[in-house]
Amino acid sequence: MRTVGMLGGMSWESSAQYYRLANELVRERLGGLHSARVVLASVDFADVEALQVAGEWEQAGRLLAEAALGVQAAGADLLLLCTNTMHKVADQVQAAVSIPLLHLADATAAAVGRAGLSTVGLLGTAFTMEQDFYRDRLAAHGLTVLVPPAEDRAVVHRIIYDELCLGMVREQSRQAYREVIARLVAAGAQGVILGCTEIELLVGASDSPVPVFPTTRLHVEAAIDAALQSAGTAPAACENTTTPATTPSTPVAAPAGPHIPGTATRTRSSR
Question: What is the pTM (predicted TM-score) of this model?
């Protein structure tokens, strides 16, 4: 079994789910007292969040790249960046290490493809929903990506940072997400990507009339698949986000067009 490196703390609420899921999956597949071989580095999310707000993405990338080097030095054979938003600096992190980074969007796109869907709604932080780095990666896999209108994006983002990252799970917020999901479905979404690792703490399949794609679980599943591969086959590293990458599970990409107030923003694949 290979050792899975996890770069977490963004937030630790979801990183705890990464660790739990990895061990549950190994136990399910190998039985007995088996558990996952994991190296976890947890950064201070307050530092990262301040850099996000300031737009200091290169500095944030350097911070995470340094942490990734520590994970590699501790014996990890592959690396998970346990956050959707910080995949904005995935290339910078991958460039710092020699072990492969399994891109979260690739694993998610693979799951959408297996489900036979082509148009998905995307929920996440404002950075993930509004910037190109994640949507473009999904689109590179042939997906059309819809994001909520501005008012809904603000609600989704606020609940992530002001509640879920602080361990608060409120029924009122769950209902707000259900309503956002319903509007995405009305706009044409065949499925919905829960594109922030904390969102799975709030909503799941029972909260949506269409399939949901829980990115934390999908990411961990891809990592355990890779960790349990025969020793002779190494997982593929993260590639530059301008070209589709391949991982044991899948790739990702997608850009968004200009937002039309009051409607879902649609991003179409260039393919």
Answer: 0.83
